[in-house]
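Let us practice reading a record.
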Amino acid sequence: MADVTTTYTARATRDNDRYWLIHVPELGHYTQARNVAEIETMARDLIATLHDVEPDSVDLEIDIQLPGSAREHLARVESLREQEAEARRAAAAEARAAATGLKRAGLSLRDIGKLLGVSFQRAGQLTSEG
């Protein structure tokens, strides 16, 4: 029976051009998967088979080992996405501020929408938010 407090690690590396080799160091056993989507299932099946438990009952962490250049690019992607999200939040705040200022200046929602490049309905939402 598997120890319910044990968190298993499935460390996946590209074995060759066709398979991912999955090592579960806590067990000292390996399995393989054809693609990334199969890694978790195959690791859970290995652990469940060896411990005679349900695959979904296993606490599992997936560690996919990628080549250095791919890791660097993915880290940059994550950083840029965070910057993009922050820029979108800032742009939304500025749009609300602009819409509110224009409304206070007496402009109609249609004019505000036209100036901001949004529908008059969205202009109404912007002026009523926050």
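A brief commentary: The chain is about 55% helix and 20% strand.
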